[in-house]
Sequence to fold (434 residues):
Amino acid sequence: MQELLLIAVGSAFVNNVVLSQFLGICPFLGVSKNVKTAAGMGGAVVFVITIASFVTGLIYKFILGNPNIMGGELEYLNTIVFILVIAALVQFVEMFLKKSMPPLYNALGVYLPLITTNCAVLGVALTNVQEGYDILTGVVNGFATAVGFLVSIVLMAGIREKTEHNDVPESFRGTPIVLVTAGLMAIAFFGFSGLI
Amino acid sequence: MNKCTERIFNGLVKENPTFVLMLGMCPTLAVTTSAINGIGMGLSTTAVLIMSNMLISILRKIIPDSVRMPAFIVVVASFVTIVDFLLEGFVPGLYDSLGLYIPLIVVNCIILGRAESYASKNPVLPSVFDGIGMGLGFTVGLTCIGIVRELIGAGQIFGKQVMPDSYEPLTIFILAPGAFFVLACLVALQNKIKHHLAKKGNEAPQAAGCGEGCASCAGRGICGGHLVSDTKKEEEGA
Fold:
C-alpha cells in the first residue's frame, strides 16, 4: 500500500509528466487557453490513460510477456501492439461513451480523438513494462501520471487566463511566454522532489 | 536545382521541422540536455523517417485511403522497433540516455506528418530525399539546442570543456526548466524574424506548432485538433 502511494506521488508530482518528462507538450500548449477546456482535456486524459494502462498491462501479462507463448520473446512487439491498442481503444471508448453515457461524452468527446497521438499514453504503457509493474501498480501509476497532467494543464490555464492581457514584449507574445511560464512551473515543481 | 536537392534544402532550411514548423516538441525538449544526445536522437529519427517515407511511398497505391493512418502507424512502429534494437546493441550508452524517447519516436508528429503530407502522394525517390532533408533539419535543430544547453548548463560542447574554469555553470539549463526557457527564446526569435519579414511584405513560412492553430499543421489529419478549434469557434459564435 505504502509502495503504491509512493509511486502515485512520484509520478503525479515529482516526475510530473509534462514539466519534467516533456510528454504531452502539444495539448499542454494548445488546449490551455481557459480553465474549462483544460479541465476537459485533463479529464479525458485521466480517463484514457487509466483504461489504457489496464488494457496494455493485461496484454503484456497474458500475451506479450507470457513465457508460455513463444517463450515470452514477443516483447519486441511492445511498441507496435501498444500504439495500435491505444488508437483502437480511444475509438472504442469514444463510441461507447457516445452510445451509453451521453453527458460524459459531451464533456470529454471533442478531446478524445486528440489523445491518440498524446505521447503520454504510450509513454505510461511503456514505462509500466520497463519498470516491471504488475497490473494494479501499472494502473495506479497511469492514473497518477494522468492526474499530474490534469494538475499542470489546469494550473497553466489558470495562469494564462490571469496573464492574458499583460503587456508582453511583442516577440514573446503567444507560444514563447507560455513556454517561459511552463519553465517557471517546472522550477516550482522541483520543490516536490524532496517528498520521496 | 533538381527535385532531390530541392527536397533536402526544403527540409534543412525552408521548412526546418524544429525552427520553422515547430514539430516534434516532446523529443526536442526532452533529449537535448547535451549536443551528443541531440545528434543521436536526430539521426535515429532521420533513419526512421527515411525508411518509413520510402516504404509508405512504395505502398501508397496499395494502402486503402480509409485505413491509411493505422497502416502508417504500423510501418513507423516497425522501423522504430528496429532502430531501438540497433541502438541497444551498438551504442548502449546513447540508448540509456535516450531511454523511453526512442520508442516514442512512433508518436513524433514529424514522421506521421511527412507520411501523410508527402510520402503518400509522391514517388519513391523524392520521398526518400524528403525524409533525408527533414531528418537532417531535425538533427541540426536538436544539435543546436543541445549545444546551447550544454554550453550554458555545463560549460562543455560534445563533452569537451570550452568555458574557462572560472565559469560557473548554470545547471538549470540542463534540467527540465532550461529546456522551456531555451525553446521560448528560440520561438521569440522566430517571431521576431517573422515580424521583420511581414514588415518587408514577404510572406513568412507558417509555423505549425499546436499553439499556432491547426490551419497550417501538417499533422492535423492525425491529431484531429481541428475538432477543438471548430467547437471553440462555435462556442464563440453562440
Observations:
- Confidence is low (pLDDT under 50) at residues 206-238 of chain B.
- The first strand of chain B starts at residue 156 and ends at 157.
- Chain B has two domains: 3-200, 214-238.
- The longest helix of chain B spans residues 124-154.
